[in-house]
Amino acid sequence: MAQQSIFGRIAQLTRANINALIDSAEDPEKMLDQMIRDYTNSIAEAEEAVAQTIGNLRLMEEDQREADAAAADWGAKAAAAAAKATSLVATSPDEAARFENLARVALERQIAFERQSKDLAPTIAQQTEVTEKLKGGLTAMRGKLEELRSKRDELVARAKMAEAQSQVHDAIKSVDLADPTSELSRFEDKIRREEARVTGQAELAASSLDAQFEGLDDLATDAEVEARLAQLKSGGSA
Description:
- The protein is 92% helix and 0% strand.
- By secondary structure, the protein is mainly alpha-helical.
- The mean pLDDT is 80.
């Protein structure tokens, strides 16, 4: 029957080892999302099945109560007719026989309703057992659904944390591979080379200026020599 089929699926899903499924899944988050959808749909089917089963059970219980009430009513009528027949045996045998026949009819009706109630008993017991199993399975499945949702949220949070950590590690690797201080070192070397060039130019300019002053000194010496020579030629003392 449909209820048993649904109960079988509930039992199968309830026994599922969520951690093992997560470990074997290629995409655990998608797998859990699908399981949540499956559980939700199965729970909806189970709720409908439980409601239908309970409804049918209550109808049978009502039929049994009505049969029991009818059996008791016909039993009372049979007793009354039998008592009336007994009271009329001496004075009115025909009336006594008529009431006796009425008692028989009432007893037949009583027996029929008692059989009806008795026939309903095992079906009611079976439906009661099925209903309780469905209720238990439904409760367990709701608990599994909450576990699934919790696992799913935990998994998503862990995945986001792992992604963030991976980004940090990648950033650290990129810093290690392209150390910005090496760029500073190269820039510093460039500045030092420029400073050295400027220093060289300054030294070169200074040496040229010294050479020019040395030329002036030579000219001054030559002028003095010529002056003294002229003085000697003129007869003066040097």
